[in-house]
Give the backbone structure.
Amino acid sequence: MKTAATVKKRVLLAAPEIPLSFWSFRETNRMMGAKTLLPPLGLITVAALLPREWELRLVDVNIRPIRESEWDWAEIVMLSAMLVQQRGMRALISEAKRRGKVVVAGGPYPSSVPGEVLAAGCDFLVQGEAELAMPQLVTALLEGSRGQVIASAERPPLNVSPVPRYDLLERGAYGCVSLQTSRGCPFDCEFCDVIHLYGRAPRYKSPEQFLAELAALQAWGWRGDVFVADDNFIGHKGHARALLEAMIPWMEAQGKPFSFITQASVNLGQDKEMIDLMTAANFGFVFLGVESPDEDVLKQAHKRQNLRDPLVESLRAINRNGITAIASFVLGLDGERSGAGRRIAALVETAGIPLVALNILQSLPNTALWERLRREGRLRELASGDTTGPRLNFVPSRPEAEVIDEYLALWDELYAPRRFYERAHRNVLEMRPTRRALGQALAPGGVDRAAWLKVPSGHRRGYWATLWRLFWRRAIFSRDGVVFWRLTWDVFRRNPSRLRRFLIICALGENLFPLRSLVRRQAAG
Ligand code: SF4
């Protein structure tokens, strides 16, 4: 009988193109010398599940195209895609099939709309999470069968999820790396596909597993930003606390090689103890789904967790205690009244949030929203997954032109550089000083004004390259240079330990200013 050990396969793992969006951070990547933001976490997890004897290569098309020699070498091509990568995945399937390769497709896009991906020509489609499906796929590949959908009936416990194969990634190509400690979210927001894809009962990796992944990243040579790609990092607070309590001494012992970014629900703002643990573990940014400033809209979207506490107070509490909130809003929700854009801008200004993800609602396949719109005859087409582009895939409950106009006006207003710098300035002045600076404030000698220069060793190159380019672009004679330098000086004077955070936020703004014209071009075209 053929076994994985006796029959070796050559597998090319390929990550399809991701279109430009809020999440690309293309300018910051350039400033840091990276080629794209995040590695394909799904693919490197799949790689770790394949037989050790098989030969693997990985190409991320967001870094470079696949070389002809790599196509020739491969027997099997494995692709993983989110909905936003659908066009790129279909293009790679047809290229691979043209060359006679066996093609395996998996990830959220094929799992959500398997019929479309099978029609594109893949030989195997892995529906759902890979951990339990992989043995069946390996057997099918060895037997040479085709045309199968491989799906496991259960969701895997995450203690069977291996350490991702970071070693397959191109070193130096990414601005940030990712890992995951949990999947699923206990909430049931009507528009969210996390519940369908990963369930409402969150599943977790143990603190030991998580530390093993951090150690693997460190061994691979990574220092810098790590994105904890959980659907909701505080979905189970007991679990989050256990992880953080394990991380804090580990990070101290290793000299704080990483700084973390994650996603969480807004109720984080009501849990000061959790925020403290997160900052002690070196979490600096958190992405929060605020969605709408209107209570009736949130109610209709089942986003009840955002109704329990005053939104502005929660956002300010997160910022005040040392984590920069990246707030996400969406236009086009049912029940939204005229002027929602203006109300979003007012909330953002009041809360002093510089980084705001602006989205147009897309109805994602298999969500409760999708089912409802389908029943109501309002669905138009499959979502592209690109929520930065100004296009609704359904008939909204108020005039569409009004939604798009408000969306475009919001981009213009929030990402006018001057307004952005002023929000960033207010944001860091409200933030408590860093832990280190708090310690110094109690000691004789006072505050260390050079703290912004003292960057942990592994972060230095990217930090200085980024700052150099930021300073160059915002030179004193540039249009917004005077404001930038005045506010920089003010942060240096009044909250010096947060000057580094201010500069990082300003560097992130460099991605968002040009997106205004891209969004306008897309609306026109
Ligand atoms: S809180 Fe976030 S992840 Fe959870 S269901 Fe709502 S939108 Fe989805």
The CA atoms of residues 91 and 293 lie 39 Å apart. The pocket of iron/sulfur cluster is lined by residues 185, 187-189, 192, 194-195, 231-232, 265, 289 (CB under 6 Å). The chain has a mean pLDDT of 91.
